[in-house]
Design a protein that fits this description.
- By secondary structure, the chain is mostly helical.
- It has twelve helices and two strands, in the order H-H-H-H-E-H-H-H-H-H-E-H-H-H.
């Protein structure tokens, strides 16, 4: 694999690390299976791309994309909390609705950003390095900032209440925690982060497309599970770092598999490689425990 391909895998891994952190909040912290992300990622991309084309500053466009993603998350959580719709069904309903919303936002199936200023443009002018070095460096700075802010939030009183809601909602309610508010806030935050990833993705790829969110939830879950399989999740800091590591690891392994000529895999095998990686990540920890237990029995 060439250096540019490797840096491309790192870049995509860092970008989808933001998605993985969003999925971590809904899937692990709140125990809320949320498929809205398949719609909120293109929503963030569509919002940012449309605003940038219409002259808005790209940084402000990213904030607007996060607000749009948070609104989508609020709809999902509201359907579940206020109307009593099963969380999985509520998220599917929102995801389907977002397809039409995204078409409305862009006014067409895709929106090009060729020649437009992006959040990466000032850094490309500032740092005298090729773009394939600058983009991963900027993404690394963004994800470090997100990790710091997210860990501060999850360690705050509200963050602890959110974690308690995910572990045992009834017990949290008995302790005076408003679990409905926690779910609304958490799912909104999760989708805001995914929408930010979509906004950055559109600026890196040179445009937004209505189909760019297909399968995002699987990629996010794969990153979370791979992170848990490779890094201890004893603390919330390690768990969040694990999401980013899992995302990078996932992208590097996929790139290695697709670039290994002797295996014979091609670009259209990406979904197959994803499925195999998720299966391995979910089964390897159990197999490792069984092997360790068998070894200890033999030693005794």
């Amino acid at each position: 694999m060439s250096l540019i391909a490797f840096l491309g895998a790192i870049e995509t891994g860092l970008l989808f690390g933001i998605v993985a952190l969003g999925v971590f909040i809904s899937f692990r912290v709140l125990d809320f299976p949320d498929l809205t992300v398949d719609g909120s990622l293109p929503l963030g991309a569509a919002t940012a791309a449309t605003l940038i084309v219409n002259g808005m500053n790209p940084f402000a466009a990213c904030l607007a994309a996060m607000a749009a993603g948070a609104a989508a998350g609020l709809v999902t959580a509201w359907l579940n909390v206020r109307l009593g719709i099963l969380h999985l069904l509520a998220s599917i309903l929102t995801m389907i609705a977002l397809y039409s919303v995204n078409l409305r936002v862009m006014g067409k199936p895709n929106q090009a950003l060729l020649g437009e200023e992006t959040v990466f443009t000032p850094f490309e002018n500032m740092i005298d390095l090729p773009y394939y070095w600058v983009t991963p460096m900027v993404l690394l700075g963004i994800i470090l900032l997100i990790l710091i802010l997210l860990n501060l939030f999850l360690s705050s009183e509200m963050g602890l209440g959110m974690r308690a809601t995910g572990v045992n909602g009834r017990m949290a309610e008995a302790q005076g925690i408003n679990t409905s508010t926690m779910k609304l806030t958490g799912i909104a935050l999760s989708n805001a982060m995914v929408a930010l990833a979509g906004a950055l993705f559109a600026q890196i790829q040179g445009g937004a497309d209505i189909t760019m969110g297909v399968g995002v939830i699987v990629v996010g879950l794969a990153a979370v599970i791979l992170g848990e399989a490779t890094i201890s999740t004893r603390t919330i800091i390690l768990a969040t770092i694990g999401c980013v590591v899992g995302s990078i690891l996932y992208r590097v392994v996929v790139a290695l598999a697709l670039n290994a000529d002797f295996i014979g895999l091609q670009a259209q095998d990406l979904k197959l490689v994803t499925a195999v990686l998720v299966v391995l990540a979910m089964t390897l920890p159990g197999a490792r425990q069984k092997w360790a237990k068998r070894k200890s029995i033999k030693g005794a």
